[in-house]
Model the fold of this input.
Amino acid sequence: MSKPVVATASLAGCFGCHMSVLDIDDRILQLIDLVEFNKSPVDDIKTFTKTCDIGIIEGGCCNSENVENLKEFRKHCKILISLGECAIMGGLPAMRNGIPVKECMEEAYYNCPTIDKNDPKIMPNDDELPMILDRVYPLHEIVKIDYYLPGCPPRADLIWEALVALITGKELSLPYEVLKFD
Amino acid sequence: MADITLTIDGKTCKAKPGQSIVDAAKENGIYIPVLCNYEGLKPAGTCRICTVRVGGRFMAACTTPVGEGMIVESGTPDIEDMRKAIVEMLFVEGNHMCPCCEKSGNCELQALGYRYQMLVPRFPYLWPASQVDASTPKIFLDKNRCVQCLRCVRGAVTPDGKHVFGLLNRGDRTAIAIDHALASKMTDEMAQKAMDSCPVGAILRKEVGYVVPIGMRKFDSKPIGSDIGQ
Amino acid sequence: MLDVIRDVQSETGSVSEEAIVQIAAAMNVSQVDVEGVVTFYHFFSKSPVGKYSVYLNNSAVSFMKGCAAIAKAFEQEAGCAFGKTTADGNIGLFYTSCIGMNDQEPAAIINDVVFTNLTVEKVKEIVAGMKAGKSAKDLVKQFGDGQNQSELVKSMVNNNIHKKGLVLFAPFEAGSAVKKVATMTPDAVVEEMKVSNVRGRGGAGFPTGMKWDFTRKSEGPKRYIVCNADEGEPGTFKDRVILTEMPQMLFEGMAVGGYAIGADEGLLYLRAEYMYLKNYLENVLEKMRKNNQLGKDIAGKKGFNFDIKIQMGAGAYVCGEESALIESAEGKRGQPRNRPPFPAQVGFMGKPTSVNNVETFCCAARIVLEGGAWFAAMGTLQSKGTKLLSVSGDCKKPGIYEIEFGTTVKTLLEECGAMDAVAVQIGGPSGTCIGKKDFGRRICYDDLATGGSIIVMGPKTDILQVVHNFMEFFVEESCGWCVPCRAGNKILTERLEKIMHGKGSATDLTELESWCAIVKSMSRCGLGQTSPNPILTTIQNFRELYEAKIQKGKDYVSEFDFAAAVKESCAVANRKPLSEGH
Done:
């Protein structure tokens, strides 16, 4: 039997969830035996080369590129997992959700203390740049998500247990210590 | 007066007349989850998480006194699922950013989320536009995190009987507010008390923070209610 | 405190921060508590509401009758949007929940004066009058029927009584009920109520005799009778007509209640929308005092002391709930109390209190005169006597119908001229929406219970729009105390909208139904326990309307709108939005 294929991505996230994947320590060797990675920062494959069994996404959607990426994943993955608080509920980037986009952008490009000089005031607007969304969206508001693994980051043990359960078809047990929202 | 006998989930319990079902359960080693209820304060029945079924009717166990021969259903799958729904409603009703909240690990709402193994709320996020009121000298009032349990409203009262916190508006706009005139005279002790009584991170003291390190916080390793029983 | 705030509001057009500080100091409470009361009620406002404040009813029936065009006309003529005040501070435009004029919509209240059957022409005249500085009262050109024409009312409101029955609209001789009750013992009065088996007319249907018995037996040196004249259930206006035409009978009914439970004080909690009746009612009370029908030693009976005070509400549906009403009458936010204790034990000012509906007191007066057995001979097994119905919506003869309990919906529809009805909302938003197959059912507590609201929907009315209107109403009118009602109704409305916008799946519909059950089970008072009913009963009886809106064969549909989501940021950055995938 061929190994299940896994793809991963970080959208509006901090890559902390990916770090937590690495935090499974020596079990990473078992993981490599268990699965094959496709599009993922782990192996640096940039585009999908085949249909994947499991897609794991950290981060929510804050711009148009995130949305496109997410939809690509939904198209190519049989199972999609929201990994971490940002994917599940927007996380820290979603703290901007109550603030008008205009105010956020002006703060970022005109007014914030680290802007040394932006005169005349220029707002980046090249077509190559992703377009900012009106707010940060949790993944399941845009595509169907099959599983959720909370945490900031999700504990390595939670990720490991969930993956093993998915791959082997065993029931996932959630010990108290591994299910956390921070 | 003589003790009252009742059963909670089939277990025979003794209780004192006038005692609430929540307290009676607690004394008999049965945990009924609470969020708005707080020791020393008159029960308010705002969160409804302690809802139980008595004679086919749902009622809040914190505001309902025990009765002789009462048969209380508490931990049934349908009630537990509705309790979980309450937790989820609170998570979508506010903006609960656990990773950046000082109360994380000591937060009772979060702890209930853990207890009910909430992976994602079943309800859509409502993204309310809430404010932080940092205008008083001793505390921050972060309305994004408030669950409107009214603990602060009931508990923070001046010696001459005035409420330091109050409820404004109604419907989905209902929100806690602080009395600015009274808050300006708040002592550190009062501020600490208000913060301690807040189940979430809506009331935080200024100039102190993150006192307990991660790993040693209240709910890091033990579920809420584990000190009481099942 | 409500009276003080009300005075400040009507005299200065708002309750400003400074006013709050002053009221708090005068009443020795914290400012935040005063602000809490001010912001709870619809007719109080911290910001100025204009020299003329227009409150246009936005209930479902108002929309059926053309509210949208009226709103537009007001905005155009006044020159400001709803929710705002004109730049010169002259006119403020606001929406408000049902004002008890459903049989003459669209209707609005301007400075306590009611304007009904509004047309674009009328709006033009009204706004011109306001701009010319005329008083709102002077803008009323025609007066309604019956006592609406009387000197102290002078209102354009119509009674529209289409059917009179034996209990409420039979002739009533002033003074007869107090005279009769003075010959009875309080025990006998309660007994007569029990024999009549009269049940609360507000909708909940609690046996009145039992309620009075409980209250009477509660310990305490003082007890209260409170009349709930806060009919806020959209589509209910029957109490308004009783107050207009039968106030004498109502007040005597309250005196009967006072005599029965041993209360010497009564309170009429009158909804703010009926402010235009206050002077008229005060005058009736004054006359009754002069005629020894109220006051000391009523009807010459030593020790039969009873008087009535009118307490104005300030705009809050939830105050129709008896314990919320008591809280409000005490000058607080109108939040229901936890029970036990019940008002019969601990009520107004902490004293045993019986809160009864306007119509219930009228029944009591009639029962005293005619006897419990006479009353019980009418109606069905569980529902005795007659019921006053407020019929509105898509029918030819909207108005008041006093029917015998047990009348079928079909008979009522024939009487009011609604033979093409597709759906009927029985008991207002918190009641039941039934379809044709149920028109043979009977109006009574044993079958279709109602506090009096009957809203007819014809083939042209969009039932889902009505459901949505009802849900918005509950979101606004929830007192906000408990989570399932405060957050739950908002969530239900969101999901309903998702489905109505064609973005729903079968899963969404199933979830919506199960969420309704959660809100009903977990909510603290009757509001949240019934607020999901518009959705639930229409899913039950009109499922096809929902089925037609959902996307078939999908278990997930996203509401995400790419173009809308990028619009603002592109505008800020001055770039052309690209379509998705580019």
